[in-house]
Amino acid sequence: MTSAGGALLVVGDVITDVVARHGGPLAPGTDTAATIRTVPGGAGANVACWAAHWGCPEVRLLGRVGADAADWHERELTACGVRPRLVVDPQAATGTVICLVDTGDAAERTFLTDSGASLRLEPDDWSDTLLDGVARLHLSGYLLFSEPSRALVTVALRAARARGVPVSLDPASAGFLTRLGVDRFLGLVDGLDLLLPSRDEACLLTGLSDATDAAAKLSRHVPLVVTKQGRDGALVARSGAVSAHVPAVPATPTDTTGAGDAFTGAFLASLVAGAEAEDAAREGCRAGAQAVERVGGRPPGRG
C-alpha cells in the first residue's frame, strides 16, 4: 500500500500533435481525405494531465519546449490542472508528432515523430527542489532516446532514490527501444520501482512472445510491472509472477492516441491516493477506455 498524499512529479516530453484521421488505406501519390486537428500531446504531458484529471491533488511536469509554442502548452497544461515547469529551448522548436489514425482499422495509429526540444532536456534543467513534497516520480521513456535527456534521467533517479521517492517509467516506444537496445535500456532503468510497458514493449524487452511470461520475467528486474494490453486489459506482476489480470473497460475507439498515457496517469494518481496496484490498474483501464473515445491524448480540460 502506498501512503496517501503528496505530489506526483512527471518528467517527460511536451509535444504538439497533428492528428489526421482517415478512413481506409493511404493513397500514395494523390489525396486521401482526412479530418485534421492540432492538439497538445507528448507522453509525459499526457500522463500528467490524466493524473490530474483522475484526482491527483498536485501534479508537476518538467519538460522542454521551443519558444514557438511555449505559451500555448503552458495554458493547456494549466487548464488540465497541471503545474508546468517548461524550459524554453533557445534553439530547437517544440517537438511535433503527426498521428495518422486509420478510422477503418479500429483507430490504430502510426506516428511520425520530430522530437524537437523535448529530448533536449538536460541535467541543468533539473533541481532537487522539484522533489519537495513529491510522493512519486514518473519518467517518460522517451527521455532515454537522446544523450542529454538520458543524463537527466540518471540525475533524477539518483535524487529520487536519495530521498526514498519511488520512481516509475513507461518505455514509450517499441521502435525506439529496438534502436536503443534492450540491454542498454535495462541498464539505464536500474533502480526503478515500477515499469509500465505495453504488451509489445514487454515482449521486446524479454524476447518472449507471451505477454504474461514477459510481464513475469520483467518483474524479476523491477519490483512491480504493469503491462498495458489495450482491449485485453492489463497484467500486474511482482517477484517473477503475474498476480492479476485486469479486464479492459469496453469502449468504441475514435483515436487510440494516448490511451496508454491515460492508463498510466490514472494508475499513478490511484497509487498516490493509496490504492493497491490491482485497484489502480482497474482505474487505469477506465481511463484508457475514456481516452480512446476522444481525439488526441488528453482528458477534457477543467476550464
From TrEMBL:
Residue span, Carbohydrate kinase PfkB domain: 8-298
Sorted UniProt keywords: Kinase, Transferase
Record GO terms (molecular function): kinase activity
This protein's record includes keyword Cytoplasm: no
Signal sequence bounds: none
Transcription found in the keyword field: no
InterPro entries registered for this protein in UniProt: Carboh/pur_kinase_PfkB_CS (IPR002173), PfkB_dom (IPR011611), Ribokinase-like (IPR029056)
PROSITE patterns hit by this protein: PFKB_KINASES_2
Top-rank taxon, per record: Bacteria
One family name in Pfam for this protein: PfkB
Gene3D superfamilies: 3.40.1190.20
PANTHER family assigned to the protein according to its UniProt record, in alphabetical order: PFKB DOMAIN PROTEIN, SUGAR KINASE
Protein known as: Sugar kinase
